[in-house]
């Protein structure tokens, strides 16, 4: 018999993606207590079918497929950047495919802006409108608002328009970090990500007869099936070896192997693959804590998942990675480094972000210490002077200079030039770690 908890989960699954959910609404609709409704909604959140957003509420979202796990929904972006929804709430469940930093002219900006993307931009009303018309959501940095007709357009298009108090660089770094974290998590594959669910699995009841095994074998071409009792709990496994020379009218429960190997949804792919190889089995039942059959995982499922992992990217790129990759050492002087200011390095005004400026000085100083074989740098104190703003596409020269160095301590002065003009300076106090 289905429990109230399961009934609520099934009801939530029938709701449209984007539908707003409340404890009181569920309790009234299904005639359950508020406590039962609350616990079921939390379980639905754990299963990834609803998402709770501060100042917005709980909404039905589309459960993610594992292979798309590196993508975020706009609802998750709001939680990451502590944002506020200005319009287009019905689109919060949609998936973010990529984000674009709007630190360029409008025509150039629109070349990169496409449907299902996110435009990160400051207080540029025209850019907000153009992005929504292109099918992109909008994230306004610096705590700015937008005009009412833009909010109405967002509602009409069902595309979120979000505001955050963070600057563009910080927001981009936070989103990149979230994607990177999920890429790491994605590498850990569980049985729950790959198994064949109960309603699509082949299994036998203990009271079935041996001839039923032959019927399933003809239908599925499998030779190994889990055996369940009247309550749906796994009580055994039956294979071709068990039924050889047995009477077709014999009960399955009399020929099956008892106490079979089973796994749960949270069992890792590596563990179940190891089990299958060492035990020489092709199908393993997937059960819950009460031993109820949830589905099966086959050798084919495991092999397919292992092949999929090999095709997936194993690392993500953060803003710090972009800064590091763009920093090039001079051919003539190892203590001089060059970089070009790209759109990802700028703030909402189109100038070099303070955070990127700091990252450039730190990375150049770290490389200098490694070149001098002094060890790796751990910043203790950093003083930065921002002398002049740096425009997009500017070519910068970073010159770190070692002032003092000891066994575990270093002091470095760094100068940043745009052409021949000094645009900023930094003084780093750091500890050294032997490599």
Automatic annotation (TrEMBL):
Keyword Mitochondrion: no
Keywords (A to Z) from UniProt: CBS domain
CDD domains: CBS_pair_DRTGG_assoc, hot_dog
CBS domain span: 195-254, 256-314
PROSITE patterns for the chain: CBS (PS51371)
Record carries keyword Kinase: no
InterPro entries in alphabetical order: CBS_dom, CBS_dom_sf, Diverse_CBS-Domain, DRTGG, HotDog_dom_sf, Ser_kin/Pase_Hpr-like_N_sf, Thioestr_dom, WH-like_DNA-bd_sf
SUPFAM superfamilies noted in UniProt: CBS-domain pair, HprK N-terminal domain-like, Thioesterase/thiol ester dehydrase-isomerase, Winged helix' DNA-binding domain
Pfam families, sorted: 4HBT (PF03061), CBS (PF00571), DRTGG (PF07085), HTH_24 (PF13412)
Entry protein name: CBS domain-containing protein
């Amino acid at each position: 018999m289905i429990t109230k908890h399961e009934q609520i989960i099934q009801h939530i699954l029938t709701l449209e993606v984007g539908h707003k959910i409340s404890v009181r609404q569920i309790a009234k609709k299904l005639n359950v207590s508020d406590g039962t409704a609350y616990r079921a909604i939390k379980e639905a959140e754990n299963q990834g079918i609803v998402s709770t957003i501060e100042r917005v509420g709980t909404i039905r979202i589309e459960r993610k497929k594992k292979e798309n796990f590196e993508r975020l929904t706009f609802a998750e972006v709001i939680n990451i950047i502590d944002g506020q929804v200005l319009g287009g709430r019905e689109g919060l469940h949609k998936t973010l495919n990529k984000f674009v930093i709007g630190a360029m002219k409008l025509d150039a900006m629109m070349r990169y802006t496409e449907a299902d993307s996110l435009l990160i931009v400051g207080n540029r009303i025209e850019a907000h409108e153009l992005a929504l018309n292109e099918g992109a959501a909008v994230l306004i940095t610096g705590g700015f608002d937008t005009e009412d007709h833009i909010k109405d357009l967002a509602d009409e298009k069902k595309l979120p328009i979000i505001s955050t108090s963070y600057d563009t660089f910080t927001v981009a770094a936070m989103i990149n970090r979230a994607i990177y974290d999920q890429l790491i998590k994605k590498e850990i594959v569980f049985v729950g990500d790959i198994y064949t669910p109960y309603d699509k699995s082949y299994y036998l009841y203990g009271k079935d007869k041996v001839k039923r095994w032959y019927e399933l074998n003809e239908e599925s071409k499998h030779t190994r099936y889990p055996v369940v009792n009247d309550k749906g709990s796994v009580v055994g496994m039956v294979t071709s070896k068990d039924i050889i020379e047995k009477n077709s009218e014999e009960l399955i429960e009399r020929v099956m192997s008892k106490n079979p190997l089973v796994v749960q949804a949270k069992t890792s792919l590596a563990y179940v693959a190891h089990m299958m190889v060492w035990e020489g089995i092709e199908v393993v039942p997937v059960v819950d804590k009460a031993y109820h059959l949830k589905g099966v995982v086959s050798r084919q499922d495991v092999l397919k998942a292992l092949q999929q992992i090999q095709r997936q990217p194993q690392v993500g790129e953060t803003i710090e990675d972009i800064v590091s990759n763009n920093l090039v050492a001079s051919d003539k002087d190892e203590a001089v480094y060059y970089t070009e200011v790209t759109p990802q390095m700028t703030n909402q005004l189109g100038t070099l972000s303070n955070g990127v400026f700091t990252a450039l000085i730190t990375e150049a100083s770290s490389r200098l210490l490694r070149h001098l074989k002094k060890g790796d740098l751990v910043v203790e104190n950093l003083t930065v002077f921002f002398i002049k703003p740096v425009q997009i596409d500017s070519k910068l020269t970073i010159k770190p200079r070692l002032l003092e160095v000891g066994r575990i301590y270093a002091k470095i002065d760094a100068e940043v030039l745009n052409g021949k003009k000094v645009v900023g300076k930094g003084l780093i106090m750091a500890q050294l770690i032997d490599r």
